Fold these 4 entries.
Entry 1:
Amino acid sequence: MPLDEKLLNRDPERVARMFTEISPRYDLLNRILSAGLDGPWRKTTVAMARPQGARRILDLASGTGDLAFEFLKVKAFQGVVIGLDFSDAMVQRARRKAAKAKVSNRAQFRSGDALSIPEPDGYFDLVSVGFGVRNFADLEKGLLEAHRVLAPGGRLVVLEFFRKDENPAIRFYMDHILPRLGRWISRSPSAYAYLRRTKKGFLSPDEFVALLHSLGFSPVVLKTLTMGIAHAIVATKPPLPRPEETP
Ligand SMILES: C[S@@+](CC[C@H](N)C(=O)[O-])C[C@H]1O[C@@H](n2cnc3c(N)ncnc32)[C@H](O)[C@@H]1O
């Protein structure tokens, strides 16, 4: 397989293995490689999701749980967050963090595949995915699963790195510093080269918005974060028509 294809390979077993490998240093890497920006990005994403009043939130590709935990910081949100990830090592870390913060009753983490969610239709008020959709082996399938498990009127919220023209300083950082620093701290030879390749090979923010519309979400709201390094998106599953609106 040519190098580029190998690095873009989203084979689920390979992706799970890669995240398992970097799981012990994943949180530290996030803080260092984003220069602390991932925290404010998560906060903005959660604010856009408006979790107040939600009873059940599903955090897909939940990793060590940082996006899930961010929902619990919203005082008016009194429901539960269920995190789903197919790397057991990530799930164990998230559970340990929940226990340490004494929030295990409201933040539960399970092993599972985002492309085949083990819950009935319409079960969640909100579905979130932080830096996860770029890794899905089948993006449309993952987004349709999120749509399926959302209640009518529910929202999908996505925080992600999309393909985007970058200013020269950001491009230099992403091309040369991030992969080296990532390799050095994570001790994984390929994980942060994979991040770079998948960002370059992913959809643009506008293409992702168009895809969400084509899958039945409306409206879809896009927010650019820190000069376009990341984006947050909120996509609504339309509510059921009121009885008088049905023919
Ligand atoms: C970059 S990490 C993001 C973790 C976390 N959401 C965050 O914001 O830090 C991506 C995570 O997605 C998980 N993942 C990728 N594809 C998945 C899938 N189809 N089902 C479940 N988890 C998946 C990986 O195991 C990994 O933990």
Entry 2:
Amino acid sequence: MMKTLPQFKIIDLNYLDEDLHHQAAHLLLLGFAHDWPNAWPTLETALDEVKETLGEEKICRLAVTESGEVIGWIGGFPQYDGQTWELHPIVVHPEYQGVGIGTALVLDFEDQVRKRGATTIFLGTDDESEMTSLGGIDLYPDVLEHLSSLKSRRSHPFEFYQKLGYSVVGVIPDANGPGKPDIIIAKRVES
Ligand SMILES: CC(C)(COP(=O)(O)OP(=O)(O)OC[C@H]1O[C@@H](n2cnc3c(N)ncnc32)[C@H](O)[C@@H]1OP(=O)(O)O)[C@@H](O)C(=O)NCCC(=O)NCCS
């Protein structure tokens, strides 16, 4: 069946709305369970992540349908004295993936970062299950050679970011254990 884009709006998540906190935490569990099962193994760890993303100096935005269902979440926090923002996390409900919600969340995040006068967004996207050509091998000593021939084997999200104008700028070998690197992505945000 063809998926369609539901009506939704993007709102700030605040400290008070516990129902939205729980929905965002469930989304995190659901969205990462398949390819990153260790990222947030329990609802409790996912709720801790929601709480960490809240705060005046941070960005925490939800995509919410007209009926109040949370179908996407994006967060981020300032780094390098606020010149650069780290995007973390982003997740779209599996039933609604592939219809543009992730794109809408990233564009909204870029607007939020621009408003704060920053110049750069970066993020790390892990490969813990050989989803790319960088997974499952020893990247040393020619790390940059491996990086320059990066390929996706199984829908790794680095391609999602590339479609939105982001560049692969680095990799941390074995970041999550041997053969499980973190791929670093960045984009300049024009004011
Ligand atoms: C990655 C994610 C946020 C993308 O959100 P989405 O709503 O599915 O993305 P969109 O529908 O806006 O997709 C925009 C484009 O990126 C592509 N894309 C999306 N996810 C992709 C992936 N994992 N691999 C390759 N391409 C992808 C889409 O096919 C689409 O391409 P098109 O413009 O040629 O049609 C979402 O799939 C998700 O939550 N995944 C699980 C959690 C995750 O991977 N988070 C990111 C960790 S760094």
Entry 3:
Amino acid sequence: MNNNTIVKVLIVIIMILSTIIFWKDKSISSFKNIIDVVSHRVEEKEVIRKGITYEKVIAITFDDGPHPRFTPKVLDVLRENNAKATFFVLGKHAEWYSKTLLQVKEEGHEIGNHSYSHVDIKKSSEEVIKSEIEKTQDIIFKITGESPRLFRPPFGFYSEKLLNVLKESEYRIILWTETQDSLDWNHPGVDNIVMKILSNAQNGDIILLHDYAEGECEAIEALEIILPELKKRGFSFVTVSELLELDTQGD
Ligand SMILES: [Zn+2]
């Protein structure tokens, strides 16, 4: 094909794509929007924010640990409520606090990768992203004997580069349900964390909390209220992998 033909083919493809998108969503009015929507849809397929909705299950997740001061207390509350959760750990914290990480694993919770140093994916090269993920994976494997299969990008940022890095791997990219971002790292107060989570709780939610944040860890006290209440409402607590497993069974 010469260049002219290629351009013509491209134009036809774009026209077909535009027609489909206009047909599906009449509110789209510019070419830029079309491109945004296409790329948004591609990315949305790659990241997980919620699980199945036909069963009363919820996945509770904790970011930025482990930390010897807070994580064991989180584990206590989980154990008292017979709840399994997922911990997205930083490689550097896992390295510093390996005993705490091992305790997380021994109590039956899932461990996910949250990068080594809480790197900003949007500003990082593929090489940096790759090394942040692999370094953390090696540390987790050395301590627990298991490689994580879930990656949660710091700040919930993701990019084409991240998708490229993870393309050949078994990693799934896990974010959180939009209504279940507790913002606990910002110390909104235990009552606000509890209210936000309980008033929004729905089947298949992925709740975001932190077992490490600068200052106090409000998630511990909040969990003491949230878990018994959700249990009373009939929810059970699963790891993210268990939630995804239910998803495939439902297909
Ligand atoms: Zn984080």
Entry 4:
Amino acid sequence: MRPNLTVNIGKLKLKNPVMVASGTFGTGYGELVDINLLGAVVLKTITLKARHGNPPPRIAETSSGMLNSIGLENKGVEDFIKNGIQKLKDIKALLIASIAGDDENEYGTLAKRLNRVGRIAALEINLSCPNVKHGARESLIAQDEKATYSIVRAARRATRLPLIAKLSPNVTDISKIAIAAQRAGADAVLLVNTFPAMAVDVDTKKPKLGNITGGLSGPAIKPIALKMVWDAYNKLDIPIIGCGGIMDTNDAVEFILCGASAVQVGTATFVNPNAPAEIIKGINKYCAKNGINDMNELVGSMKVGAL
Ligand SMILES: Cc1cc2nc3c(=O)[nH]c(=O)nc-3n(C[C@H](O)[C@H](O)[C@H](O)COP(=O)(O)O)c2cc1C
């Protein structure tokens, strides 16, 4: 018998726990991979108005990871509703829209605009992009419990869609921010976005990114992201979606054992667009091999105590 891989995130029912992370997965990959196998596709973050993004270069490879400073380039929510969503019509997998704004009003408006776009199954609230400024704010929204609460609250009031709050790893205690998102009505938290980071070309003495700094992703961040999931797991009542450096099945299972109900895969798809599909197969095999009938039994089941 095949193990049950179905996972519930609020009202959202995923057929398996593997999603592709916002901004990393070209929907044009449809020619290379079967997108419909995925638990969900998280779309690139959209904002109220179009954004041109940051100056190039916007991507740089680092040891065991990559830096990006895309800066949320997108054509704005109205273009997405008018044209963008049409381009996704052949994708049968669940679509999750990701939104970012400067303040509560913008997040509320975005959530309201997307509320009735039939194909959108849930909203991911990006509170944590290290490559953009949120209005006059010096810090990220997800570095501030109060701001996290009020923005998730504004989105909660504007939509009945399931809400996922995407948090930043660049905080002292991630569980405090996660609890603020939960209190405000988030159905899940996503841990984590990229880590603020940089790299320098010693020959030119210039930064490798046009924006000087960017966000670090890939295997380099996995152990830190994992600890954040573990730290938050026992303190939350809502599910955690784990993200950060997941390259293969073992990485995904590690996140699940530490408390993630589902995972997102980003940088891995730059190396192998089929990684998410291979991870779904791998989780199936892992469950079968270990006599697990329901993947949900694995969530948070890491054994602690004497080694
Ligand atoms: C090129 C690139 C673009 C990204 N764009 C977004 C974005 O638009 N919105 C967002 O919430 N996260 C964005 N991210 C962050 C990823 O969704 C993910 O949280 C992060 O890369 C960590 O996962 P990974 O190590 O598996 O890549 C981006 C990451 C990369 C590498």
